[in-house]
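Quick one, probably user error.
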């Protein structure tokens, strides 16, 4: 039996797709392994969101070739799809394929192992292509299961290469979502994380929307939490938000992609909303989901961004009061309109602005964490990685730790009430509302 090792870069969608590929390889008679030592094949699932991401992918490719000179190496994912001509020239890879027809990859690897010939399988997406449904195992190592329901993007933000790497927006059929949610519930998982490249556009043009997908998952009794991946703010209507709340299972944590808190910069990015509209949406969500948490992504150093624009964006971060902010510097992507813009910001200025934005974000994050002290929250506990604490996440995705009084006791995959007593930089400390069983010898979860 051939052994295959996987290296994954990038977002949750990529990690979901790697799990699907592992299942496909297993079904084809391969053995997915956790170490590349002795592997007959290596599959590198790439990301191309930033130029530094491309560099990491290429470094991993060269390293794998050097350490496993006889292995078959397959490079797949967003990088070869977005840059097919460049990828096809990479002699370190025996197989080059993109984000299409992933079901064929085990067949390509098997063919290459037999015949030792280089294979390049790259084709562009055509309008109207269906969603490729890949069978995915229930993520046995996690207490939550990821469920990809959408792929592609139609927005073409001026800085982004993803529409070229993923094609146009397309959605998984509701019937398939129901089947997968049923399988996840039967595996014992209590939480589903819905993911997609542009999740908020699920069902666009198909007569359904994200709320329909949530309701399909919520119908499974064993599922108690449904967490949403990154959302584009311009399509979150009051009707959709009301239906999400009515399900009773949607986690009150919303990752609303911002990119900039300056309307002038948003327009240059070809984002479809203003800072004022974003703020109004946040207020509407807070009315429907009281005490919810907002997380986001913010870019600094976009071409043409002035010091005043940056300050406006940093002030907006404080105005919203995010619980977590992912800050990144603008990275030029060949083939995008932003790459051709004249007013490129120097790297030194980007670094300074990133540090300044991080300071603003840390203030809002600290304020949010402190606001949780004294509250009682429901925590879904995960694997204990030390003898000192049980750890898990509240519905708002705050990391919660409680003292582990008995090292033999596990709370894995249990949903328990916790009173938060102390806030730290990246987590809170609490105690169980009913901890009478924590000293018992029984191992639960």
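Nope, works fine. Designed sequence:
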């Amino acid at each position: 039996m051939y052994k295959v090792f996987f290296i994954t870069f990038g977002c949750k969608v990529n990690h979901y797709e790697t799990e699907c590929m592992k299942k496909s390889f297993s079904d084809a008679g391969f053995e997915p392994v956790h170490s590349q030592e002795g592997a007959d094949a290596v599959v590198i699932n790439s990301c191309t969101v930033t130029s530094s991401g491309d560099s990491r992918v290429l470094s991993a490719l060269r390293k794998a070739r050097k350490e496993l000179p006889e292995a078959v190496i397959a490079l797949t994912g967003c990088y070869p799809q977005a840059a097919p001509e460049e990828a096809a020239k990479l002699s370190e890879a025996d197989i080059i394929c993109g984000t299409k027809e992933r079901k064929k990859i085990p067949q390509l690897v098997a063919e290459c192992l037999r015949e030792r010939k280089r294979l390049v399988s790259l084709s562009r997406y055509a309008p109207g292509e269906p969603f490729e449904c890949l069978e995915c195992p229930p993520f046995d190592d996690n207490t939550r299961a990821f469920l990809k329901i959408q792929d592609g993007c139609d927005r073409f933000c001026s800085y982004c290469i993803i529409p070229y790497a993923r094609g146009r927006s397309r959605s998984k059929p509701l019937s398939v979502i129901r089947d997968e949610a049923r399988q996840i519930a039967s595996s014992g998982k209590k939480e589903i994380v819905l993911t997609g490249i542009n999740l908020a556009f699920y069902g666009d043009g198909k007569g359904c929307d994200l709320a329909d997908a949530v309701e399909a998952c919520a119908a499974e009794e064993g599922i108690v939490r449904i967490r949403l991946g990154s959302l584009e703010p311009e399509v979150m209507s009051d009707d959709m938000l009301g239906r999400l709340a009515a399900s009773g299972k949607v986690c009150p944590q919303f990752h609303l992609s911002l990119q900039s808190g300056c309307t002038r910069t948003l327009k240059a990015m070809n984002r479809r909303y203003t800072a004022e509209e974003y703020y109004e949406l946040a207020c509407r969500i807070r009315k429907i989901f009281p005490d919810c948490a907002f997380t986001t992504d913010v870019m600094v150093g976009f071409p043409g961004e002035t010091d005043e624009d940056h300050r406006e964006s940093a002030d907006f971060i404080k105005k919203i009061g995010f619980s977590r902010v992912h800050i990144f510097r603008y990275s030029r992507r060949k083939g995008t309109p932003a790459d051709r813009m004249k007013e490129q910001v120097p790297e030194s200025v980007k670094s300074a602005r990133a540090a300044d934005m991080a300071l603003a974000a840390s203030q809002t994050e600290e304020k949010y964490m402190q606001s949780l002290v004294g509250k009682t929250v429901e925590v879904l506990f995960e694997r204990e990685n030390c003898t000192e604490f049980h750890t898990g996440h509240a519905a708002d995705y705050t990391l919660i730790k409680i003292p582990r009084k008995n090292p033999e006791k596990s709370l894995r995959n249990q949903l328990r009430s916790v009173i938060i007593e102390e806030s730290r930089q990246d987590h809170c400390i609490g105690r169980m509302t009913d901890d009478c069983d924590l000293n018992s010898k029984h191992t639960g979860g």
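The CA atoms of residues 24 and 103 lie 7 Å apart.
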